[in-house]
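Sample intake sheet
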Amino acid sequence: MTTSDLGAEAAWPVEEVDEEPRGPVGKAFRLSAADSLSLGNALSGFLAVCVLAWSAISNLQAGVKFVPDPRFFGTAVVLLLIGATCDLFDGLVARKFRASAMGAELDNLADVISFGFAPAFMVMIWAGFSGKLPLWLVLCAAASVLLAGVVRLARFACVKTKSGDFMGLPIPMGAMTVVSIVLLFQPNYVTLAAIFAVAWLMVSRIEYPKPKGNLAAVVLAWMLINVACLTIWAAGLTGGDQLIKVGATMQIAIVSAIPLRVLMFKQQQRRERRSENAG
């Protein structure tokens, strides 16, 4: 090596090595009570996927045509509702008690599993084996649920509305609406269009009210009622079919009514502004 080579090598800037840890490294490994609920949410979503996969595998091993079993679907939906309950409480617990440094990240990752991947997988199990629809279209519908959920969660972490409400359909409510469509209808082009519509609502700019106070209690009561109805339906008890139809219909109606109410409210505001400008 020549002297010029040594000079050229010395000319390169030498980056200083920062040996000091950045951020609360020690605290990041401590799970809080809210983190435990987020992990419970993720576990519920994983178990729901396992139940649905086992329902398909057991039919294929028996060599018979796959027909969705209400017991498996009911169990999977109950698990998703348990995950939704954990998701509802983890924020409340984090505000009440001390949250960890990775609480928000854990919450989003758990939501992707339970309310993004699990309902998308349910759509595949519901329509992919039916033989009534092209497989590529079913894949697109399932992928739209997953991708819309991921985008919805990423936007939630970056964008805050002035009113404090949710921008777009919250992913747990979107997942429950997809589940309601799966439970209530047979796979066809109209029901797939409804699933695409739910995915669009999740990434839309329509504001949905955030459950606070009495509204949070109503949401929790609604989840518990759904769990009870699904348990009765999956057990094959008398009246279970009617209960699940009523619950699924109400879920779809609520999700559909909120955008209409928002549009009517905005039209009313525009009329008031026009009347004020005219006056």
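Comment: The radius of gyration is 24 Å. The first strand starts at residue 166 and ends at 167.
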